[in-house]
Amino acid sequence: MRGSRVVVLTTTLPRWTGDSTPRFVLDLSSQLALLGWRMDVIAPGYEDAKAEDELEGLTVHRFTYAVPRSFQTLCYAGGILPNLRERAARAMLVPPFLVSAFLATRRLVRRVKPDLVHAHWIVPMGLVAALALPKSVPLVLTVHGSDALRLRGPVMNSLKSRVLTRASVVTCNGSKTEKAIAPLLPAGKPCVRIPMGAKPAEAGAKHGVSLPQDRFKVLFAGRLIHGKGLDDLLEAVGAFGAGNRPMLLVAGTGPEAERFAARAVRLAIAQDVRFLGGLEHERVLALMRDVDTVVVPTRNAELVEAQGLVIAESMFAGTPVIATSGGGAEDHVRHGLTGLLVPPGESAAIASALRHLMDNPTAASAIGEAGRAYAREKLSWQACARAFDDVYESATSERREQQ
């Protein structure tokens, strides 16, 4: 019940105020704290992050898994899987990470005696929770996509099935995630579908980016890696003649940043593409409000967006979104109504969608407004928190009945 103590386990959390690290776990937990739950969060340490911190009503405990602390490079800056692909030697950090997370969880659980533990991702934090928690403590497990869609194989599936079996309640962020974990769930255990929330920029928020008034402006916001489809978007921009070419703004960092910049040069569109680097989240939200469209061109064969929070944020901004079909975007984007859908990996389709918005400003405005209305009803953090509030109430009530 509200007022109960909850321990949250996550590998993704802003390291400090204004950090560009995705903040969806922070936003959800903060909203639940506003509803009366007492929230402690366990997250990985980082060189310049405080071991104990207070962030937006949450008590944050960061565990150290490598010494010196500058060696803690497994998490953040894109996530565990991209960081492992970028540098294979980081695999040596996995065992100490798991041991440290386990010990930190067990210590905090023994100290604060939570009524509930909420783990984000099956692996690693769901696994850590399953090993560290007494059987009497309910475990809410949230599956975000990468853990369900990318970590596969007989051994991994068996491990994930055991973690899902231990969970009192399993939630997922969309239909793709739900379908991926369905074969691993114990018979009769449902997956509660709750999309992660989003929000618009604060009324006075400024992005600080100088924007031309006489050009159609396109925003890409995300990790600069091959699977995100920025190659396709660059080719789409290059398909326009110099006289009517849109300006592309790229907000994000990643291991392939230099390659993308070089590709823009080879396509002879370098003067039409601005690489902005990593921006604070509030600046990205403000930028979404001032561009003409946001494009999310994921290559599904390499990376499937289970939900795509950029899509939800674009909708809140009232800006038309162009997204890839075949992924989680289809849960929320109705083609021609709340956004536009294009096949994955097809730059010509992206160019066609851009032309449609450029040539039909009235239709583009209608799509943006329809997307905003949908987001306000279905994708707000308040709606997300209310759904998790129900999950928490159910899990803690069941525990009380068993005592």
Keywords:
403 residues; alpha/beta; Rossmann fold; 2 domains; six-stranded parallel beta sheet
Walk me through the topology:
Blueprint lengths: L4 E5 L14 H11 L3 E7 L7 E4 L2 E6 L16 H7 L7 H19 L3 E5 L1 H11 L6 E5 L2 H4 L4 H13 L2 E4 L2 H7 L9 E3 L23 E5 L8 H9 L8 E5 L5 H10 L6 E5 L3 H10 L2 E4 L12 H9 L3 E4 L15 E3 L4 H13 L1 H18 L2 H22 L1
Helix pairs in contact: 1-14, 3-4, 4-6, 8-12, 11-13
Helix content: 40-55%
| Uncertain stretches of 5 or more adjacent residues | none
CATH fold type of the largest domain: Rossmann fold
Q: Number of domains in the coordinates?
A: 2
Strand content: 15-25%
Give the CATH class of the largest domain.
Alpha Beta
Structural Rg: 21 Å
CATH architecture of the largest domain: 3-Layer(aba) Sandwich
- For the secondary structure, the number of strands is 14
Which structural category do the helix and sheet elements fall into?
Answer: alpha/beta
Reading side by side through the largest sheet, how are the strands ordered? Answer: 3-4-2-1-5-6-7-8
* Shape, per Cα inertia axes: globular
Q: Please describe the biggest sheet, giving its number of strands, its sense, and whether it closes into a barrel.
A: 8 strands, mixed
The H/E string reads EHEEEHHEHEHHEHEEHEHEHEHEEHHH
The number of helical segments is 14
Mean pLDDT: 93
Terminal residue distance: 15 Å
CATH H level, superfamily name of the largest domain: Glycogen Phosphorylase B
Protein architecture, described:
This protein has 2 domains: 5-197 and 381-402, Glycogen Phosphorylase B (Rossmann fold, 3-Layer(aba) Sandwich); 217-378, Glycogen Phosphorylase B (Rossmann fold). Helix 4 packs across helix 6. The chain contains 14 helices and 14 strands. It is globular and about 70 Å long. Helices cover 40% and strands 16% of the residues. The protein is of the alpha/beta class.
